[in-house]
From TrEMBL, chain A:
It comes from Pyrococcus horikoshii. PANTHER family: NA(+)/H(+) ANTIPORTER SUBUNIT E1, NA(+)_H(+) ANTIPORTER SUBUNIT E1. GO terms for molecular function: antiporter activity; monoatomic cation transmembrane transporter activity. It is a multi-pass membrane protein. NCBIfam families: 2a6301s05 (TIGR00942). It comes from the Archaea. GO terms for cellular component: plasma membrane. The chain crosses the membrane at residues 7-27, 33-51, 63-79. InterPro entries: Antiport_suE1, Cation_antiport_E. Pfam families: MNHE (PF01899). The lineage of its organism: Archaea, Methanobacteriati, Methanobacteriota, Thermococci, Thermococcales. This is Na+/H+ antiporter subunit E. It is found in: Cell membrane. GO terms for biological process: proton transmembrane transport.
TrEMBL record, chain B:
It comes from Pyrococcus horikoshii (strain ATCC 700860 / DSM 12428 / JCM 9974 / NBRC 100139 / OT-3). This is Uncharacterized protein. It is a multi-pass membrane protein. It comes from the Archaea. InterPro entries: CPA3_antiporter_subunitB (IPR050622), MnhB (IPR007182), MrpA_C/MbhE (IPR046806). Residues 104-227 form the Na+/H+ antiporter MnhB subunit-related protein domain.
Amino acid sequence: MTEASRVSRYLYTFIVVLIIWLFLTASLDPQELIVGIIFSAIVAGFTYDIFTTRGLSNLHPRRIAYAIIYIPYFLWAMIKANLDVAYRVLHPKRPINPGIVECKTELKNEVGKLALANSITLTPGTITLDIDGDRYFIHWIDVKDSSIEGASEHITKPFEKFLKVIFE
Amino acid sequence: MGEVVSMLKRLLSIILILIIGYWIAQGLANVPFGEDRMLVGKYYLQHVKEQTGAVNAVTAVVVNYRGFDTLGEVTVLFIASTGVAALLWRKRRERTAKTEGSLVLTTGSKLLFPFIMLFGMYIFIHGHLTPGGGFPGGATIATGFLLMYLAFIVYEIPHRGFEVTEGLAGMSYVLVGLIGLAIGGYFLFDWIWQTWHFGTSNLGRLFSGGFIPVIYTLIGIKVGTELSGIIDNMLKEEVKE
């Protein structure tokens, strides 16, 4: 993966930080805007080097559209999975079959891997224990398929199809 | 024998603490709760807006009415940081951590760092409007650097730059006070508000509060760099040549 130019990385960091500032202040008062622009420029100057490797290409409309669709998709998966765990807790026989499985991912980007790991952890029933290259070690409350391919099909694939567009 | 003595010591200290606790409780029982006992406080609340331009009365007290205390606190922090550096001074000190954080930790820290920094700045610039100010803002920024230190085994702050910035910020604070002395006749006189009347029409918006935002920006920078320096000093270990 090639690194974007410094200018593009700086601008991307500046834009993201400025958007966060707008949410923080929740006002479009010109005074707040001036200070926000100055502060964002300073923060971006200090941190763009570690914040991003791809720069402005992160803001491709297709990526943003997928990211916006991903939010409700992910929230729905989270609600379903939480209800599933509640069912397991309340069920008198406690139908659990825990184990640690290995999954493979096709994601190459570090941020994408982080997003995948967090998505897996936040949908209850699965917790990411460690990431090693393209291998994920996941604790699963109800192991349905302990092979690498099978587990990937159940755990990582549903998120990957979105994350691949957003981060690759 | 030793056991009996240590038991006795423990018993004695429990009794002593109980006596002190009872004593303090008796003293506090005489202070009426929920009654209006404000003497100076009332003056602050009634005059804070036209005298300092700050909406947040706490910052007005800390920076304006009782500015010397804050200058003292900044000095205390400076001495603490210098003291740590002096105590841990060695010729060659390096980071010797062995285990790199996992990918989730390192990538997450990289992503969070700008936001922590921005939020710290947000806290100190809005000191005269919202709770917070220079010290919490600076501490928040230092937290960002601590996060980087804990996530990466080789990360180091740029020392020279940090030490110079810290000194300059402290000096500028004193300088702002000295300008007040020249204009208004006493140290830490709020010249931006009282003499220039800057921001008088902006009460409650960002460009108000006299020199409070200026001083809190300086304090935020100073505290942020200072605490980061302390973290850096404490995380490094001596290396044999």
